[in-house]
Design a protein that fits this description.
It contains 6 helices and 28 strands. It has about 400 residues and is α+β, with helices and mostly antiparallel strands. A hairpin with a 2-residue loop joins strand 20 (about 285-290) and strand 21. About 35% of the residues are buried.
């Protein structure tokens, strides 16, 4: 079996994305839409506002009579009624008249401006204006927010709380979404137990990956196979229609790292064997048994970083949803950091005020608490080695909450 050489992160993303099947479309109710990705542009079925509405509590009136009103000679208008929320009033406002109106009310016929309640004097059934009023003042015109047919929610949008409120505001009860990719998680390693005793390590990567994949992927199974090839082969056979299998551990060069041998036994096609980054040199990607296998490091920090820098952009391409990917900014280092001179280095960080970022030190990637304290990932370019306090560094941030625990 020929083992491909190291690839860049960008090449690895492209290799994985092009081998995943294109997402099918599904229709779900709005109640089930949180965490789904829109499958097409959602267009406005009407103008909004549908009618001119008041943006404040006050009095609606006709501005032509009040253009020259001044503090020394107030203009008085007759209050002829009140406009109520949620209905179209049959009032008609003429010259010298006004009506009480609340925020969100549809303007009655004739009115073309609204004056705030606190800016007028009330004298019985009249108001006294003290200043000039412009036509359209404090009014949201019909179609000001969007017009019928405008794209309100683009295709590829992650439906979160804000988006689902917009969809409900458009009067939709069902929405066309992209089907979630089906993912299985396979954890290797004899030392990982769900009920650990003395000198044993509790398994946490499956929980980590399940949390990171939610809500945009459907996790169809989680399996701990230790170092048992028969158990691994049995898992692959029972998965059925699965888009991606994510494995953790067993890809190093030690005597207990057996993933390569397993892949040979199932006649897998290895697409790449390692990424030119740290962490990343032990990442493998292969296709076998009708689905793709992505092998990530067993160390929790490396698993977390590579999910966000590798698999997250793959999912952004899969869904045609750029906002799922990490957002890049420049920040100033609060401390000195050291990367590997020969490769780009990823490091967890904590971004604070004034765009200052602190690296989160960890012991050989084994500190499974580190991702909990991170809100960003730092990138030290190849050839840089040491970066000093105060230097500008590239920082990756999540735009949507998906993919980070914090």
């Amino acid at each position: 079996m020929t083992v491909p050489s190291l690839v860049s992160t960008e090449e690895a993303i492209a290799f994985i994305a092009e081998r995943l099947r294109k997402p099918r479309r599904d229709i779900c109710s709005l109640d089930e839409a949180l965490g789904r990705i829109t499958a097409k542009d959602v267009r406005a079925p009407f103008d909004y506002p549908q009618y001119p509405i008041s943006q404040i509590d006050g009095f609606c009136l006709v501005t032509d009579d009040e253009k020259s009103a001044g503090v020394s000679m107030p203009c008085r208008l007759q209050i002829v009624g009140e406009v109520h929320i949620g209905e179209r009033s049959d009032l008609k406002i003429g010259k010298g008249e006004c009506a009480v109106i609340s925020t969100g009310c549809i303007l009655p016929s004739g009115a073309n401006a609204v004056v705030p309640r606190e800016e007028v004097g009330i004298e019985g059934n009249k108001i006294a204006l003290q200043g000039e009023i412009a036509r359209g003042q404090n009014i949201a015109a019909s179609g000001e927010v969007f017009r019928k047919g405008d794209i309100v929610v683009p295709e590829g949008t992650l439906i979160n709380g804000a988006v689902i409120a917009v969809l409900a505001g458009l009067g939709l009860s069902r929405i066309e979404v992209k089907e979630r990719p089906r993912v299985a998680i396979v954890v290797t390693g004899e030392e990982l137990l769900h009920d650990a005793g003395e000198l044993k390590t509790f398994e946490s990567n499956a929980y980590l990956l399940r949390g990171l994949l939610h809500p945009v992927c459907e996790v169809v199974g989680e399996f701990a196979v230790g170092s048992d090839f028969d158990a691994f082969e049995g898992v692959l056979r029972c998965l059925g229609k699965c888009d991606l299998v994510i494995m953790t551990g067993g890809t190093g060069l030690g005597s207990t790292d057996f993933t390569r041998a397993w892949l040979r036994k199932i006649s897998a096609e290895i697409v790449f064997n390692g990424i030119h980054s740290a962490p990343g040199c032990h990442v493998m990607f292969a296709s076998a048994c009708g689905f793709c296998l992505l092998c990530l490091p067993g160390k929790p920090v490396g698993c977390f970083i590579l999910f966000n820098t590798l698999l997250r952009p793959v999912l952004a391409r899969f869904f045609n949803s750029p906002s799922l990917d990490l957002y890049r900014i420049q920040a100033r280092l609060k401390d000195e950091v050291t990367g590997r001179h020969e490769t780009p280095t990823w490091m967890l960080g904590s971004l604070g005020e004034n765009l200052e970022v602190k690296s989160l030190a960890y012991s050989s990637g084994l500190d499974f608490t580190a991702p909990m304290n991170a809100n960003c990932i730092l990138r030290i370019p190849a050839g840089k080695g040491i970066m000093r306090k105060g230097e500008s560094i590239e920082v990756r941030l999540p735009v949507q909450g998906f993919g980070f625990l914090k």
